[in-house]
Amino acid sequence: MFTLPQKESRKPTTCPGSVSTRGLHSIYGDGLEREAARKPDQKLLYGVGDPTAMFSSDSPHLSSRGSIIKWFWDSAEEGYRTYHMDEYDEDRNPGGIINLGTSENKLCFDLLSRRRPRSCVDVGDSAGPHCEGILREEVASFLSFYCKSPAPLKPENVVVLNGCASLFSALATVLCEVGEAFLIPAPYYGAITQHVYLYGNVRLVCVYLDSEVTGLETHPFQLTVDKLEMALQGAISEGVKVKGLILINPQNPLGDIYSPGELREYLEFAKRHALHVMVDEVYMLSVFEESVGYRSVLSLEGLPDPQKTHVMWATSKDFGMSGLRFGTLYTENQDVATAVASLCRYHGLSGFVQYQMAQLLRDRDWINQVYLPENHARLKAAHTYVSEELRALGVPFLSHGAGFFIWVDLRKFLPEATFEEERLLWRRFLENKVLLSFGKAFECKEPGWFRLVFSDKAHRLRLGMQRIRQVLEGKSQVAEDPPSCQTQEPRGPHR
Amino acid sequence: MFTLPQKESRKPTTCPGSVSTRGLHSIYGDGLEREAARKPDQKLLYGVGDPTAMFSSDSPHLSSRGSIIKWFWDSAEEGYRTYHMDEYDEDRNPGGIINLGTSENKLCFDLLSRRRPRSCVDVGDSAGPHCEGILREEVASFLSFYCKSPAPLKPENVVVLNGCASLFSALATVLCEVGEAFLIPAPYYGAITQHVYLYGNVRLVCVYLDSEVTGLETHPFQLTVDKLEMALQGAISEGVKVKGLILINPQNPLGDIYSPGELREYLEFAKRHALHVMVDEVYMLSVFEESVGYRSVLSLEGLPDPQKTHVMWATSKDFGMSGLRFGTLYTENQDVATAVASLCRYHGLSGFVQYQMAQLLRDRDWINQVYLPENHARLKAAHTYVSEELRALGVPFLSHGAGFFIWVDLRKFLPEATFEEERLLWRRFLENKVLLSFGKAFECKEPGWFRLVFSDKAHRLRLGMQRIRQVLEGKSQVAEDPPSCQTQEPRGPHR
């Protein structure tokens, strides 16, 4: 038994003390001491402080919690940063630092190595900077090439997490206070709502688009700066603080592509209002019609506000690897990059996923000569088939040669223009064994739009389209009450 | 160009409207409609509602945000649940559901398969239930065996995320409202502070332990129910709402092991106060002294409150795979399991990590006959070496035959008993090229304790101990002001 002569009064004290609503607790101890040294006039109780007061000025780009997240990271990393700059190595750096601080079992790597898939780290598997460094270089090089950036993109501006869902969650949290909001043109990929809300408590302000065409040079569901301005002013008038704008390009579910001119207008709008812009380019390499002239925002010369422009990409769509969990953020804003990266404990990806991804991304020959041409040809063929089927059915739709889906107008098949009827039609499809997504899931304002995914094998598409036809023609087994308008002509040409 | 005759007034409305501080926004649309149908007396503006009011009664175990998280999941999954119960398969289920709803490119799996590591899913890589189901069975079987559960553990009680950091983050969020707290005996693994706070805004109330020994049957840093009670009452008196208790067993950094009797006392305490208990057993298989008689909480017959007992394990420590990102939660509470699992979009692990882990966990022969005996023998040898070195140095320490670290008492090497001196000593170690962790990082109340990790190769340990000795004996190159007490005798026997 280990006994100690020293006697100390024992006080099972609570750490937090009486804290403000955003207050932290005593683990700030060490940091508080340093902070106190820096700001001697600031009153600090033991282990109790108001981090918002301490950190709000850390970065003009981060929310108070973003600053706290970054600060936690920075302050905890002192020893490890020093270590990683001067790691001990028996041969190469015998005078380097021996790490007896990280609780990691280095004794059985030999036994484990034959059981573990290859990883880019030789010793251990800790989510260290080694692997990530290599991967960030590969991502920067990959994005430079495929986004056609005017100058090479920089590895230090790259953050890698386990998918775009996590990137949205992290960005919302480090950019916004609780209850603040992002603008988003609707219809939009509905899961983003949860991504920014569930952890971040950030809301979305919809910029509602509709199918009405108002002029010669316009198209259905067109996003304009006027609509952005109106939505922003509407939010402000309702007391909602808007911190950013989310753009999806190619758009999901519309399949829209923003022209460089449009992109620049939206970015200028954001700059005028000091908004961050998060550009989700997750379908960037799934543009199968060359003629649509897709341009990544990273291809633009002289971004209006590069410190507030954050670009996301992932392998989920372009490489059919949604289960792989791999998403990248590109931002020139180092505060944002650090704050988002420091959440990697919660959104980290396995060392060997990092390794595999680095291998894949650098295989430019295979991607350019085998994968992309074949992938685009197959997407185009599937798209052509489904388009023709829809035309034969007399169903209007929107499609622009990008993405995996067609935005289908089934409004005439609804007895009434309600979301309840939309859901009933959706359920009839499901009962007839074909699953689609209804427009309400994308926050579409007009009931009756559906997203139809065509990126599937021919025999499944054929069967799926047959089953859709059965429902629309009232011939499915389950359709008790076939919609009355089923024989109407389509209301416009297809695109 | 696609034109539509139907004209509709265009209103770029903001979704959120005037919401409560915890209010959600219009993406609740569909859900709100259903909720409204269920509760016709509840006043609802378009797209605006108070989800706390709607969900608070969903589960007595979940916080309002936990209920929201679970509800989002449940409601979004309707179509996919139906689909997964009746998936189309050309041969086995040609009458099954064709999925044209999930935006996934199934056209190039043949091209990608040769480039992708093996995964347990044949087609696609979506984070679906297939892989996870197999893995959960393996985890349940693995934990049943190694935790020596009285009855087989059930796969449906298993949740897998990318590590314990994520599990803490998710549990904090689904169990607590913003600002609520968990009790934790201190010193403790300091990163937990961030895990529960950064996303969850949950605080820790420390149950401070100290080195004083108060009686024959006691030991230093002993956790008692009295101390738990005092800390809880202290927190309550300060207006802090405590929702749970975190136990780490084997403890980090103390290396302590709770006896079955102690465990049961702590669990009974928690039950009396309706507290959830999160038991972190991440060093469960790293108990290298058989004689200490480690028992997992899952080995206990008749847990006092199984619905509030949540057990965590990971491969990071026991299989030296911290970079692999693999953590498991075992809980009989299905609300908690679902809510935590539904955050998998942010904490998901790659499909092929799931595959690899299932392979590893089922290889009971290798684990039992090769890995664990050798791992324990090596840990023991390394521990013996470092213990002897510390004794030779006259340094008291605590160590109980579990974990990778020794809790070292360097108080006598501090000129003054302050955390500033502790940090200065830590920096002298670092400047002499050896990295340790200081006690303040574990929220230890007594300055001068350090955690020394011994699970490293012999030559690095030797060098590390030499460098520690140099600093303590004032012989390092950098020690400008060697502590005056360096020649003192140790204050007690070692353990």
Give the oligomer, counting copies of the same chain as homo and different chains as hetero: homodimer
In the CATH hierarchy, what is the class of one domain in chain A? Alpha Beta
Q: What portion of residues of chain A belong to β-strands?
A: 5-15%
CATH architecture of one domain in chain A: 3-Layer(aba) Sandwich
Q: What is the alpha-carbon Rg of chain A in Å? A: 27 Å
Let me know the CATH homologous superfamily of one domain in chain A.
Type I PLP-dependent aspartate aminotransferase-like (Major domain)
Class derived from helix and strand content of chain A: alpha/beta
The CA-CA distance between the termini of chain A, in Å, is 81 Å
Strand order of the largest sheet of chain A: 2-8-7-6-5-3-4
Give the fraction of residues assigned to helices of chain A.
25-40%
CATH fold-type name of one domain in chain A: Aspartate Aminotransferase, domain 2
Could you give a short account of the major beta sheet of chain A?
Answer: 7 strands, mixed
Strand segment count of chain A: 13
How many H/I helical runs of chain A? 17
